[in-house]
Amino acid sequence: MVHKAAPAVVVRDLHARRGKHPVLHGLSLTVPRGLVVGLIGPSGCGKTTLMRSIVGVQIVQSGEVTVLGRAAGTASLRGRVGYVTQDASVYEDLTVRQNLAYFAAVLGATRDDIDRVIEATDLAANAGQLAGSLSGGQRSRVSLAGALLGSPELLVLDEPTVGLDPVLRVELWALFHRLAATGTSLLVSSHVMDEASRCDRLLLMRHGEVLADDTPAGLLSATRTRDVEAAFLALIAAHPSPDPAAREAGDA
Amino acid sequence: MNPRRTLATAGRVLTQIRHDPRTIVLLLVVPSLLIGLLAWIFSDTPVFDTVGPAMIALFPFIVMFLVTSITTLRERRTGTLERLLSMPLGKGDFILGYTLAFGLLAVLQSAVAVGYSVWVCGLTITGSVWLLLAVAVADAVLGTALGLLASAFARTEFQVVQFMPALVFPQILLGGIFLPRDQLPDALRAFSDWLPLSHAIDALQAVANDSQDAAYVGGELLIIGAWIVGAVVLGSITLRRRTP
Questions:
Q1: Domain extent at residue A43
Q2: Which residue from A48, A170, A246, B169 has the highest number of Cβ atoms inside 10 Å of its Cβ?
Q3: Dihedral, CA atoms, B118, B119, B124, B128, nearest 10 degrees?
């Protein structure tokens, strides 16, 4: 069923602008199947643009994005890829359950599936509450629950743990690994370096380029550092940005 | 397109509105209050009988235009539209779902406005009240369809509110309320023939005075229907899955 040989995502020489700013300049990377891959980098380095390109909602200038063996954005991929945007994209004037019921209807998921994702994201106590009355962290979990509906093969999660308390963060990372164990591929972005150690593989990004693609242990030994933050700084020192203009554009 | 997803979308929009009772009350009551005010202003003159039918066209049209354009813009702004378009939802499902949900509200709103005008304000309707209601509903749905289309061209709430005077006011000015359309300068007269609100007002006045037969009213309804279909189709074309 899961072809370990065929990667979940292959990106080749991707150029993309966000609005008018060039953000990705010839980016290439591979996300293997069945792993939790962390996309780590400072704010504004192009993580969201890359994720939007993979999901197929980003206009790209050039390059190839292949998802689960098909061109990104192909209609048949829409039910197989779950996407969580950075800001919780849920209806504030619907309850948690009503939000999920609507997404389930669009995806063709069952009622049992709604209960399953409510359970998985620890929202059972809030199921009848309006999403607008929830805290930021709870709302982003509703958004995540929506992406888990229908058990997609690839989950693209843009900073899913922002604003969550430490206990919940640990629980969510445990959930990500449980999903990966059942064959789901996950691409999870974060600008918090200490979350990097929880990933099976890391993609370190800066100014729209991938600085490193390795396991956390491999990265530390390659840079002879003791934590991911130090490794990132060592990589930056080794790869100075080619020109100041690109740096500014990347920061925008 | 898929009927299950279209209906799920319409149901979701109606559930959202159900959580907002104040909006429901405003939607249903405001047009009638304005019509009542107008009837009061002209209570000692015969003017209300001539402008009353036009008002039935006007207020639901404006209210539905505003409500729809702002709701769909909000959907674009909060990221839920991006989420839906990354899911297996057809653009037609989205637009038709909205049209159905707000169309249903438009039916209720027009029914209240027509009932209030006729039975409370004493608007004289020589023709069929049902035909009057049919035209009023078509007109409110037209407001919904144009609102959907307008929201595609707005990036912010400020912009979408400006579309109201830009797209709606010219239709009001040229619709024959201020000056009968046959007294307009030729160029404006010809232009007003192309505007959907002109046909809505003509049809409502024809029903009110019973001055034309049902075929004429049916023809006008067809023109309004063509505008609705055109706006819905254009609206779904302007809905982009990929954005910069």
A1: 9-80+154-251
A2: A48
A3: 60
CB–CB contact A107 B87 (8 Å)? yes
| Residue A190 shares a structural domain with residue A147 | no
Q: Are residues A76 and A201 in the same domain?
A: yes
pLDDT tens, A173-216? 999 999 999 999 999 998 888 888 899 999 999 999 899 999 99
Q: How many Cα atoms within 13 Å fall on the side-chain side of residue A140?
A: 17
A105–B8 CB contact, under 8 Å: yes
B89 touches A at CB < 8 Å = yes
What is the per-residue DSSP string for B174-200?
HTTSSS-GGGS-HHHHHHHTT-HHHHH
Q: Scanning the structure block, which residue is given the tokens 């599936």?
A: A113
3-state DSSP assignment of residue B202: helix
Nearest chain B CA: its distance from A10 CA (Å): 19
Q: Is the ipTM of this complex over 0.90?
A: no
Show the beta-strand stretches assigned E in A131-239: 154-157, 185-190, 201-206, 209-214
Asked if B83 has any chain A CB less than 8 Å from its own CB, the reply is yes
Task: With CB atoms and an 8 Å threshold, state whether A57 touches B241.
Answer: yes
Q: Does B84 contact chain A (CB < 8 Å)?
A: yes
**Of B8, B20, B83, Cβ closest to residue A85:** B83
What is the domain count for chain A?
Answer: 2
Does any domain span residue A1? no
